[in-house]
Amino acid sequence: MMKTVYNFAAGPAVLPQPVLQQVQDELLSYRQTGMSVMEISHRSALFQDIIDRAEAGLRRLMAIPDNYKVLFLQGGASLQFHAVPLNLATTGKVAFVDTGNWSKKAKAEADKLPHVTTTVLASSQAQQNRVIPTVPAVTDHYDYVHITTNNTIEGTTFFDLPAVGDNILVGDMSSNILAQPYRVADFGLIYAGAQKNIGPAGLTVVIVRDDLIGKVPNLPAMLDYQLQADKGSLYNTPPVFAIYTAGLVFDWLEQLGGVPAMTQINQAKAKILYDYLDQSDLFTAPVAPAYRSLTNIPFVTGNADLDAQFIDAATKAGLYNLKGHRLVGGMRASLYNAMPIAGVTTLVDFMKHFEQEVR
Ligand code: PMP
């Protein structure tokens, strides 16, 4: 019998057990073909059915309007930092809300395009990224305004979207897509790396309003949203295994009641950990309550040696990957959709025990 472990990694991250079980059951012979899903042609009817069903599943889960394309791409969210301005920055004026490391990286990739000028509308840097900054009403015209809906490293979330006027909002939803509700129609484009709430690494989902694409000629084929849309994400060989697994994750989430049901579960999980942190004499959660992420929860003891001791002891107890990002130190528990409530209660019990021991 394998010992129960809980994986709190920020990504690649925990996947639902029933999905892994199904992957295992189907691995050697997908639908009686005698081949694994990794070995079938991406031009086969069998794979077409897999990608069609994955797309339909995501469309239902996020209520994606018909005038939005769903693209299954590669290169991670990091490639989208560049692809988004390449496709959407038709006048070259782009705005960002700076909420930490990933939004800075997104801006830096846009800045590499010679025709693009970026503006920072608001920043949380002076508050150590422990808040989501207030964005003044946007009156200027930009090709789009970019936000990181959930800041994986800093543990903050946009629960309310900024008022961008007539501008288009672009959201990097890598770490809270499908974990809490957003209205797709509030965005012109949403992108997310799959390896947190969707499936294995190697797949990136882009959801884009169809009138925003196809405006820039001669883009590199792999970065051309219009071409990828026209080819049904099959311009080249797609990450077949990741798309297949994502489809199973979408089915799993739908059976659980979709995003509304998952939001309630995620709120309950996060509350267990934040409630404990807020009354603890040892651990603290640095993020201001109004902006606290449901999916990535940083915490510290205030003493780097004690942090290291905690992480070591937690690992020995089967509570894995609790080390905070190297930029911020301390600890971080990522509570994505596939993390069961038992994982959080086990973590909190362990923290209580640790707190008693060191006092
Ligand atoms: N944006 C956010 C919010 C992230 O959390 C990450 C990865 N942790 C990235 C972008 C980069 O994603 P990728 O590794 O898929 O390029």
TrEMBL record:
L-glutamate binds at R43. It comes from the Bacteria. It is found in: Cytoplasm. Pathway: Amino-acid biosynthesis; L-serine biosynthesis; L-serine from 3-phospho-D-glycerate: step 2/3. It is an enzyme of class 2 (transferase). GO terms for molecular function: O-phospho-L-serine:2-oxoglutarate aminotransferase activity; pyridoxal phosphate binding. It catalyses: 4-(phosphooxy)-L-threonine + 2-oxoglutarate = (R)-3-hydroxy-2-oxo-4-phosphooxybutanoate + L-glutamate; O-phospho-L-serine + 2-oxoglutarate = 3-phosphooxypyruvate + L-glutamate. Its cofactor is pyridoxal 5'-phosphate. Gene3D superfamilies: Aspartate Aminotransferase, domain 1, Type I PLP-dependent aspartate aminotransferase-like (Major domain). Pfam families: Aminotran_5. The modification N6-(pyridoxal phosphate)lysine is found at K196. Residues 5-346 form the Aminotransferase class V domain. Its EC number is 2.6.1.52. SUPFAM superfamilies: PLP-dependent transferases. Keywords: Amino-acid biosynthesis, Aminotransferase, Cytoplasm, Pyridoxal phosphate, Serine biosynthesis, Transferase. PROSITE patterns: AA_TRANSFER_CLASS_5 (PS00595). Belongs to the class-V pyridoxal-phosphate-dependent aminotransferase family. SerC subfamily. Catalyzes the reversible conversion of 3-phosphohydroxypyruvate to phosphoserine and of 3-hydroxy-2-oxo-4-phosphonooxybutanoate to phosphohydroxythreonine. Homodimer. This is Phosphoserine aminotransferase. It comes from Loigolactobacillus bifermentans DSM 20003. The gene is serC.
